[in-house]
Amino acid sequence: MPIAISPDHKTLYASLRSNPYAVSSFAIDPHTGKLELINTVPLADNMANILTDLTGHYLFGASYFGNKISVNAIRSCGLIDSTPLEVIPTGKNAHAILTDLLIGICLFQIWVMM
Description:
The protein has 114 residues and is an all-beta fold. It is built from no helices and 10 strands.
C-alpha cells in the first residue's frame, strides 16, 4: 500500500491498490501517533506511488499498470478533493513521481520502467 506524509507531518495518505482504487487521509495525533480518518476519495487508477508536493497542497499519484499520473488538490486539514485536477497519460509503467520547488515553479519527474 503506497503511503505519503504531509510536509508538516500532520497527515498520512494511504492508497488502496485494490478495486475500487482510492486514497485515504488520516490526521496523526502528535502525542500518541494514533490515526484518525479524515476522508477517502477515488483515485484515477491503481497507484504504485503517491507523494505530496513540498507545500502539502497537492497529492500526486503514478500508476504503473494504468500508465498515467494524477494530481488531486489537498484542502486544509488534509482533506483530499475527490476530483483530480489533472490526469496525464505517460509512457508505459509509470512507477513514481517526485517534485521539487525551484523559484516558485513546481517541477516534477516521472519514472517509467521499461
